[in-house]
Amino acid sequence: MTPQEEKQIQEWGSGLSDTLQLGLVLTGDKRDSELKNFCEALSRIVPQIHIRKEKDESYKAPTIQLCDTLRYQAVPLGSELPPFLEALDILNGKAVQIPAQIRELLSQIDLPATLRVYVSSQCHFCPATVRQLIPLAFENKFIRIIIIDGMLFHEMAQPDNIMSVPTVLLDEHFRWTGEVQLEELIDIIRSRDPASLTASTMARMVTEGNAFALAEMMLEKGEIFPAFLDLLVHEHFSIRLGAMAAIEEIAGQSPDLAVKVVDPLWVRFQDLNDQIQGDILYIIGESGTSEMIPRLEKISDGHGGEEIREAAQDAIDSIRERASS
Fold first, then answer.
1. Residue 126: how many CA atoms within 13 Å on its side-chain side?
2. What dotted CATH number matches 3-190?
3. Sign of the C-alpha dihedral, residues 136, 137, 143, 149?
4. CA trace torsion 75, 164, 185, 106 (10° rounding)
5. What percent of the chain shows pLDDT beyond 90?
6. 69 CB contacts (<8 Å, ≥6 apart)?
C-alpha cells in the first residue's frame, strides 16, 4: 500500500461514523498474507473497520467478504481502491444509485446468479465496470458478485480463458469483455432457463436454504437439471444434504421424475468414497424401483464395509416398502 493509497483511505474514513464488519476468509493459500495484510492495514488506518476472520470449506481462495453477495478475491488497491471504498459506503448505508428501469429489471430476478468479474489493479477500464456491477449485489439478494484479480489468481483466470480485463462471466455460458451493457446483462440473468443452472449456482441455493425451491423448479420443468447430479455426489456433506432434501421432495411428488437420478448415480458409485456411497444408497432407496434390488443385493451380500452393506440393505427394504404401499 502506497502512502497515497493510505491517505486516500484515511480521507475516506474520516467521514465514517459507524462500525463496519468485513469478513476475511483464509484458506491456507500462499496469497492469504496479501489479503490479510491489506485488511489489517485498512483496519489500522480506519479503526471503525473491524475484520472478522472466518473459515468456510467451500471457499477455494482467500476472500474479503463485504456481505453475502459481494466478495473480493483480490487486493483492491491501485485503480480498484476507489470502487472498493464506494462499496463500503453502500455497506455503511449510503443509498444505492440505480436507474429506475434497471431497478425494475432487477426486481424480476428470482434465480441465483453469480457474476465473476476479472480485473487488475493496473487496468484503467476495470473500475468503471466494477462501479456498474457493485450496486446490483446490494439491490437484489439473488445476485452475487465476485471480483477476482486475474494476475493474482492466475489459476482461476487460465481455465476461464481470460485474455484481457475487465471480463465478466455469468455461469459457464456468458461473458462480456470490456464495456458491459447493463440492461443486456440483467436481461440475460432474468431470462435464463433454470435447467441451465450450474452446479455452483444450485449449491448456493441449497446452502442458503432453498432446496425445496430448487425441487419445485425441477418438478415444474419435469426434468432433473443436468448439473444437479453433481450436488448429490458433492464432496461437502452440507451440499449433499440439501440436494438429498430436494430429491426427497421430488420423490414425494413425482416418483417417475425422481427415479431419473438413479442410473446416473449408479454409474458414478464405484468411484466415490464410502460416505458418499452411503448417501447414494439412501437416495436409491428413496427413488429407485425394484429393478435396482439385484444390484443392491450384490452390495449387501458382498465383501465391502459393514456400513455400506447395511446401507444397501436399508435401500432394498425402503424400495420394497414403497412398492407394497
1. 27
2. 3.40.30.80
3. positive
4. 10
5. 81
6. 137, 138, 141, 143, 144, 145
Please choose, from the candidates 178, 115, 116, the residue with its C-alpha nearest in 3D space to the C-alpha of residue 149. Answer: 116
Q: Which of 148, 126, 134 is nearest to 60 (CA)?
A: 148
d(CA 190, CA 117): 19
The length of the chain is: 325
Residue type, 18: D
Residue spans of the domains in the chain: they are 3-190, 194-324
Grid coordinates representing 319 are: 424400495
72 bridge partner residues: 64, 147
Cα–Cα distance, 203 to 210 (Å, whole number): 10
Residue 55 one-letter amino acid: K
Question: Cell numbers 467521514 correspond to what residue?
Answer: 15
Residue with grid cell 487460465, as numbered in its chain? 158
CB 228 within 8 A of CB 242: no
CA pair distance 257, 274, nearest whole angstrom: 26
Contact criterion met (CB below 8 Å) for 40 and 112: no
Amino acid code (one letter) for 158: Q
| pLDDT tens digits along 232-243 | 999 999 999 999
pLDDT tens digits for 164-184? 999 999 987 789 998 889 999
- The DSSP letter of residue 216 is H
Helices 262-269/274-287 angle, 10° precision: 160
- Residue 292 DSSP one-character state: G
What is the separation, in whole angstroms, between the first and last Cα of the chain? Answer: 69
Query: Hey, which residues does 147 pair with through a beta bridge?
Result: 72, 117
pLDDT of residue 60: 86
Quick one: residue 63, left, alpha or beta (phi over 0 = left, psi -120 to 50 = alpha)? beta
